[in-house]
Amino acid sequence: MIDKLGKSILTIFGIGYFKYAPGTVASFLTCIIWFTIDQYTKFSFRGAGKIFILVFLIVILVYSIILIDKLYNKRDAKEIVIDEFIGQSIPLLAFSFRPKDFIPDCCSKFKNDPESIIWFVLAFILFRFFDILKPYPINIVDKKMKNGVGVMLDDIIAGIYSTIVIYIIYALWF
After folding, report:
1. According to the model, what pLDDT value does residue 109 have?
2. Cα–Cα distance, 112 to 107 (Å, whole number)
3. Which of 7, 52, 104, 105 is most buried, judging by how many CB atoms fall within 10 Å of its CB?
4. According to the model, what pLDDT value does residue 112 have?
5. 3-state SS track over the chain
6. What letters, b where the CB count within 10 A reaches 16 and e where it falls short, cover 103-138?
7. 80 phi-psi bin (left φ>0, alpha ψ -120 to 50, beta other)
8. What are phi and psi of 60, to 5 degrees?
9. What is the mean pLDDT of the chain?
10. What's the pLDDT tens digit per position in 86-105?
11. pLDDT single digits (tens) 25-82
């Protein structure tokens, strides 16, 4: 029973078994989940809300690392997509730390908070870019760490890189 629940979590309820691009699908679903929470709920990403989310993600992360090592013999099995969820969540949660004037007035014609839409699209594209190309040190982690920590850490670094690049884009925008 616990193994089935664990595999469900690691594969994000079967997304990892998709034939084509399961990591991209998991990242896209992560964007949809966080966008929906941001736009259509009263859940606060400020103060205690952020702390709750971070603790929740850390618990999922630790549990996933243990499960990866326990349930999968091959390293970084394509079925495991929880690492995409964790990595993609980093730039999406960084959205709550964004400067208030992230997007200039020229883009205010969009509906549904243009800052959110642009941030989420950039976060998705950049995360997938870094996750697929694996620049330094992601490539080192991917090659050298052959356990659950390595599976998670390369996506965490890709998420951090995505966040940094989005903030650089913001800094250069103005």
Report:
1. 45
2. 12
3. 7
4. 60
5. CHHHHHHHHHCCCCHHHCCCCHHHHHHHHHHHHHHHHHHHCCCCCCCHHHHHHHHHHHHHHHHHHHHHHHHCCCCCCCCCCHHHHHHHHHHHHHHHHCCCCCCCHHHCCCCCCHHHHHHHHHHHHHHHHHHHHCCCCHHHHHHHCCCHHHHHHHHHHHHHHHHHHHHHHHHHHC
6. beeeeeeeeeebbbbbbbebbbebbbebbeebeeeb
7. beta
8. -60, -40
9. 82
10. 999 999 888 777 766 665 54
11. 999 999 998 888 777 777 656 556 766 777 788 788 778 878 777 777 766 678 889 8
Please tell me the pTM assigned to this model: 0.85
Residue type, 84: E
Average pLDDT for residues 152-165, to the nearest whole number?
94
